[in-house]
Automatic annotation (TrEMBL):
SMART domains: NADH_4Fe-4S (SM00928). SUPFAM superfamilies: alpha-helical ferredoxin, Nqo1C-terminal domain-like, Nucleotide-binding domain. InterPro entries: DPD_II, FAD/NAD-bd_sf, FAD/NAD-binding_dom, Helical_ferredxn, Nuop51_4Fe4S-bd, Nuop51_4Fe4S-bd_sf. This is Formate dehydrogenase beta subunit. Residues 61-106 form the NADH-ubiquinone oxidoreductase 51kDa subunit iron-sulphur binding domain. It comes from Aliiruegeria lutimaris. One of its GO terms (molecular function) is oxidoreductase activity.
Length: 665
């Protein structure tokens, strides 16, 4: 990496001499800064916490102009310091870089910058002047020298990027503050538009998303994170049907000719998302699905009390409404091969296979259990068929579920609804270590499920193949290792037996059709997942893959993000024969790799206002039905919740040696 010439970060002035003598500083630990794109070195970087320069010949005036121009463009206009300050500073810097007399000098600019920093109402205004002030207060001689002769400054290459902690945390990079702004402005149809630009399953995601955005929300430092998922559901439910279809149809590019066909294998969230974006790009898309319904794991793996199937169907049907086709009952390896798809004229193939095969525990007695034994996915499929009226499933007695993820929680809560007398969850670590969504764990507890943490199964007890009990052992935590993580180990002599009529192993899944896919020339990795590069291209040219079959069992939002990324790269491969460089993705990598988004408290005082929660059915009522537990908030509640967003926007910019190639976001 190039050495930093000068800069300021978090108020600390970079000292090249101290670094040369071995002193460790925040800026000396930068990573991934060698080049922005191939052969295009980074000359300078500006952000919400300061700036640093690699090339002493960089024009700070021109760089600050582009940074403040982005701030002025993105200012919401709600407060005067940001609305007027960004424009005044930008215009003054513009005059300076053109060699003209400016109405403001650097003292005036410093005063305006400080006013923005201290009195703006949102994160954009509070942080956009930080680098500006650092330059004026520490390197004023440099900027004064630049404008001393009143000559135009040569324009520099680079880009500016606006983001927020919630945006960066979202796998699909949804502009969360923007869709919340539209709710606050009384324009929920535009809010839905922000969501539909990224994926078609907004109402589904508004019910089952695991809320990475809320984990990153800075409002949590004041009281509680903004109910981003709750607001997403409100928008999607309010604008569902014709409004969503109208918006997506307006996004379709000019349809390509009939020969531009793409095959998508798997109608789960990844496949539906990929098909959706390919249709918006103008391709003809056929989705091959081995079952008779679209939705994949969202269809069979998420019970109706969390995700009503009519809601899911309404959103997957958008594929047909946009001109795509679902070809149900079509299984890879049985009805067609990848070779055949290319022979039929498909230009590319996307593998959106799910992980629909359960993983065994590997304990004694498991291999002979035939009656009363299920994998988590197998059980949820039977629950799905029961709710759909295909095959009745009744439960009684003692039910034991092993696992601590969302699949385990779904199994537990479904067993309660099917009539089990008692339902137990076995987890080898502590409750705090459970990977399931906290809301799901709390809901399970409210439905009288018995938690046995720091407990592990060692033997399954059967009689003539019928499960009758499970032998368990108590576990204890070890001392923390170097990373601070505690492991667990069995406590000798602590074994005990729990009566059990139904045993469900909900500990993981794997790709069901792996052998068939390998036969078509697709490489797998050591975890038995499809091997794909950063652009989701597989070992076979023209074949891309994404979702659970690449990452292993993951979340709906990750699968939909993979579908979007794959569609973008498939379009590049078909049209250009290669993948374009995406400058916004590169900026995201810089921000992520260097942890530029600080986990800080808010800069301005905010009045406490605790979040709105979705109304829920009473636990005693919902335990006996598969009707949806959570309900949608009302318009008044949505407006109140939207007011809690602090718009924690941040701006980052780079100055580069050469022009940055154009690509999509």
């Amino acid at each position: 990496m190039s050495k930093i010439a000068f800069g300021v970060w978090d108020g600390v002035v970079h000292d090249p001499q101290a670094e040369a003598e071995g002193a460790e500083t925040r800026l000396s630990a930068l990573t991934n800064f060698d080049e922005f794109d191939e052969g295009n070195g980074i000359r300078a970087f500006f952000g919400d916490r300061g700036f640093f320069v690699f090339d002493e010949n960089v024009s700070l005036v021109d760089a600050l102009y582009h940074y403040m121009n982005k701030a002025a463009e993105q200012s919401c206009g709600a407060c005067t310091p940001c609305r007027m300050g960004t424009v005044l500073v930008r215009d003054a810097l513009d005059k300076m870089r053109r060699g003209l007399d400016s109405p403001l000098d650097f003292d005036d600019i410093e005063m305006l910058g400080e006013q923005m920093r201290q009195t703006s109402l949102c994160g954009l205004g509070q942080t956009c002047a930080v680098a500006l002030l650092d330059v004026i207060r520490n390197y004023r001689d440099k900027v004064e020298t630049e404008i001393a002769h009143h000559r135009p400054i040569r324009a520099q290459h680079g880009m500016a990027y606006m983001t927020a902690p919630c945006i960066e945390a979202c796998p699909s990079k949804i502009n969360v503050p923007r869709y919340i702004d539209y709710i606050r402005d009384g324009r929920p149809e535009r809010s839905l538009g922000v969501l539909l630009q990224k994926y078609p399953m907004a109402a589904t995601c508004g019910r089952v998303c695991v809320r990475y955005c809320e984990m990153a929300c800075r409002r949590k430092f004041v009281d509680e994170a903004v109910g981003i998922k709750t607001l997403k559901r409100f928008v999607a439910d309010k604008q569902k049907g014709p409004q969503a279809l109208k918006f997506t149809r307006d996004m379709i590019r000019k349809p390509l000719d009939d020969s531009m066909k793409i095959a998508v294998i798997g109608a789960g969230p990844a496949g539906v998302s990929c098909a959706y974006h390919l249709l918006l790009h103008g391709y003809q898309v056929d989705v091959f699905e081995k079952s008779d319904q679209a939705g994949g794991m969202a269809q069979i793996g998420i019970p109706s009390y969390r995700l009503p199937k009519d809601t899911l169907a309404m959103e997957t049907d958008i594929i047909v409404e946009l001109g795509g086709r679902f070809l149900f009952g079509q299984q890879l390896g049985r009805d067609f091969s990848i070779d055949e798809l290319f022979t039929r004229g498909y230009k590319a193939v996307f593998l959106g296979l799910g992980c629909q095969e359960g993983t065994a525990l590997g304990i004694e007695g498991e291999s002979v259990a035939r009656d009363g034994y299920f994998s988590g996915i197998e059980f949820l499929l039977k629950v799905h068929d029961h709710v759909d009226g295909i095959e009745r499933l009744d439960m009684k007695g003692e039910v034991v579920v092993v696992g601590g993820g969302n699949v385990a929680m779904d199994c537990l809560r479904s067993a309660v609804r099917l009539g089990a007398d008692n339902v137990h969850v076995i987890y080898r670590r502590t409750r705090e270590d459970m990977p399931a969504d906290e809301e799901e764990i709390v809901a399970a507890g409210a439905e009288d499920i018995h938690f046995h943490t720091l407990t592990n199964p060692t033997r399954l007890i059967t009689e003539n193949g019928k499960v009758t009990g499970v032998e368990l052992v108590r576990m204890e935590q070890t001392e923390p290792d170097e990373s601070g993580r505690r492991s667990v180990r069995p406590i000798p002599g602590s074994e005990f037996t729990l009566p059990c009529d139904t045993f469900i192993a909900a500990i993981g899944q794997q790709v069901e059709d792996g052998t068939l896919v390998e036969g078509d020339g697709i490489a797998f990795d050591k975890w038995r997942c499809v091997s794909a590069d950063k652009g989701l291209a597989t070992s076979r040219p023209g074949v891309f893959a994404g979702g659970d079959c690449v990452t292993g069992p993951s979340t709906l939002i990750y699968a939909m993000a993979a579908g979007l990324k794959a569609a973008r790269n498939i379009d590049d491969w078909v049209q250009l024969g290669t993948q374009r460089f995406f400058k916004r993705s590169r900026m995201r990598d810089l921000i992520s790799d260097n942890r530029f988004l600080a986990s800080d408290v808010v800069e301005a005082p905010v009045r406490n206002a605790y979040r709105v929660h979705n109304p829920e059915l009473d636990p005693e009522l919902r335990k006996h039905m598969f009707g949806e537990v959570e309900q949608t908030i009302c318009e008044k509640e949505a407006y109140a919740e939207a007011q809690r967003c602090m718009r924690c926007y941040r701006i980052y910019s780079v100055v580069t040696q050469h022009a940055i190639p154009e690509g999509a976001s």
